[in-house]
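re: ur question from earlier - yeah i can do the single chain one, its not a big deal. heres the input i used so u can compare w yours
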Amino acid sequence: MAVLRRCAPQVGITLGSDKSLKTTISRHENGRVTPGEDWKRLYRLAYGRTDDELGFTDTGPSDDVQSPADDLRHRIATARRVDMGLIRQMQHQVHHIRLLDRRLGAASLLEQTRTVITTLNELVTYSLQPSVRAALSAVLSDAGALAAWQALDVGAVRQAWDHYEVAKAAAREAGSAVLLAHAMGEQVYTLHDLGRLTEALGLVRDAQSLAAKAGPRLLVSWLDAVEAETQAALGNDACRQTFDRSAAHLPAETDDPALPFIALNEAHHARWRGHCLAQVGDTEAIDYLTTALDQMDHSFVRATAGLRCDLAQAHATRGDLDEARTQIRGARLLANQVGSVRQRRRIARVGLAA
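and the output i got, formated as tokens:
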């Protein structure tokens, strides 16, 4: 119920007492009362699920009186109106959602991202001009990967996997090895969350093979870091050498407009290395994580929550439990602010009473 209460103001619903809320939820669950659109939106925001996944089905009469042929003509005509200017606007829209996601969290924005994906997929499906279709597919790949990352954050692993498959298919349609390698690299984390780490390592290495042919150095560095994190999760000390390789590939100019989906500068790299060292029990992680905390752009609220969680783990390993509890309190506060299920689970695994 706490999650519903956090999300209720965003949809304009005022919730009553816990008792009345339980009664309302029970009526929705047993089918005695059909949730209205505002309640459906609240459930989607709170649980990061689609209407189908939540069991909401539209059984009312259809207002669509068009014949299938007329409907097809309409969709093709709509897609024909797309030009490169509109595609750029849609790319800006996806990036704007990404920036908001860093500050506000996935629970507030996943539904919006899914709506953009639906629109893009519709336009790609009925677009006949190859250049427009490829450009739309590139935006769809970016949006699909973003939605997948958001779904992971709200704990919807299956939904995340499906979004990554959309992102990969769109990257192939766009003819972009860069987008495909990026989607594969992020999809690794669905396997992390399923505990299938050996397969995760294989997937990131397949992505590295794609990027090695023509990938920009920033992407190569990012994929090396994904590999290192996977090695650390496996308890493999080779993660240190892999992170050294990632650092060697990291370009001096890390703000690449062609790669808006990769945020990796020296501060983020230090945070990532610190995370891996914390996983293998190396207290040197504290130095990297403290440096990152001082230097990182704190508009990355979810990432900062993860960083503080890693600091707590590293301090606990060193035996400094007071500082570990201080950091875990900070991590929990930030994770709750953005509604990150994934970060709250990480915090719980550290096992410290704040």
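The chain has a mean pLDDT of 90. not sure if urs matches, ping me
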